Amino acid sequence: MDDLYATLGVTKTATADEIKKAYRKLARVHHPDTNAGDPKAEERFKEISHAHDVLSDPDKRREYDARAAFGGRAPNGGGFSGAGADGGGFGDFADMFSSIFRGARTGARTASEPAARRGADVEVEVNLNFEQAMRGAQVPVSVETPVACADCGGSGAKPGTNPRLCPDCKGRGVRGRDVGSFAFSEPCPRCGGNGTVIDDPCPTCGGSGHTSTRSQIKVKIPAGVKDGTRIRLKGKGQAGTRGGPAGDLQVISRVSPSRLYTRQGDDLVISVPVTFPEAALGAQVEVPTLDGRVKLTVPAGSPDGRSLRIGGQGAPRLKGEGRGDLIAKLRVEVPRELSADQRKALEKFSKLDARDPRETLFS
Ligand SMILES: [Zn+2]
Ligand SMILES: [Zn+2]
To answer: How far is the CA of 213 from the centre of ligand 1 (A)?
Structure first.
């Protein structure tokens, strides 16, 4: 990330007045009107203007300082963010800034200070049983973390040699493109944005500058995760190269199904068997919840498949507070075998129940 303060030749603590003065002085010297036909002066003038544009606006300056503190990435909070709860529109805004900043790069980088690059995001899956998903868990996750190659010291060049300045982009790492008043840029195709090329790659790391090691970290899985929920851990992904920030670790929960419950959003559904007399006469039955048994009143005359809601006994909400509901779905069981007395009783019942349940099929 470019140092806009350096572009204007001021310190990071410069006051608004100091920034204005520095800008005016430099703008006079490099103004295209006084340097007609000199593309370097024009480029320099653009850089100065961009730096002034950002640093003279308190909001933009704060944003820039924050980005600089985060190694060029937009600060996005930390710790957990549930599925899809990512930075949102902020990312695009930051990316646009990043293009402008890169476009406004001052002078050529030297081979000894190549471009810092953010590490890649890493995805890992963790297997959880249903109980763990409902209560939350600490799970060890094995991640591959690159460390600077000991043989080349991270440069990627064969020991005894050095990377050299990329001849295509002169170490800038970017290929510039002017679109209207914005200077957009893309990574230099020859050096991939590094600003340097390696003629003799280090045999140990193959020129990447790092080798990897496995390490274990404990990941806190919040209560209420679903199968497929992604948890993003900022900066726990692949290490950045050349001082760049680390990528993110994305932990994807794989939740095994429960023997008792199926999930509907934040509600849990349980199938509750009841006898025919319980359904017909009404009953108090016990139902297992995540927190133990609760008594459920089955109203008299409950049809098969009736859903009864038990508030607040569902899954913990990942976003927001509290829990969903437990939905008890009644399943009226038909006895497979009958004792002689039961048979007699049912035969009597059948005679007393003169109604024809199939009547409506033919009317
Ligand atoms: Zn190496
Ligand atoms: Zn290049």
So the answer is: 14
* CA 174 – ligand 2 centroid, Å: 7
* 52 Cα: distance to centroid of ligand 2 (angstroms): 27
195: CA distance to ligand 2 center in Å? 5
- What are the tokens at 189? 């195709």
Nearest bound ligand to the CA of residue 111:
2
Q: What are residue 327's DSSP bridge partners?
A: 269, 309
Provide the residue-wise pLDDT of the chain in tens; the chain has 363 residues: 567 888 888 888 888 888 888 888 878 777 777 777 777 777 888 888 888 888 888 888 888 877 776 554 443 333 333 333 333 333 333 333 333 333 333 344 444 445 567 888 888 999 999 999 999 999 998 887 667 788 888 788 899 888 888 898 888 888 776 666 666 777 888 888 878 888 999 998 888 887 877 888 899 999 999 999 999 988 888 777 666 788 888 999 999 999 999 999 999 999 999 999 999 999 999 999 999 999 999 999 999 999 999 999 999 998 878 999 999 999 999 989 999 999 999 999 999 987 888 988 987
Q: Judging by beta carbons within 10 Å of its beta carbon (0-12, 13-18, 19+), is residue 344 exposed, middle or buried?
A: exposed
Task: Output the CA 8–ligand 2 centroid distance in Å.
Answer: 25
Measured CA to CA, the distance from residue 140 to residue 357 in angstroms comes to: 58
Strand partners, 292: 289
How far CA 191 is from CA of 6, 120, 198, 360, in Å, comes to 25, 18, 9, 79
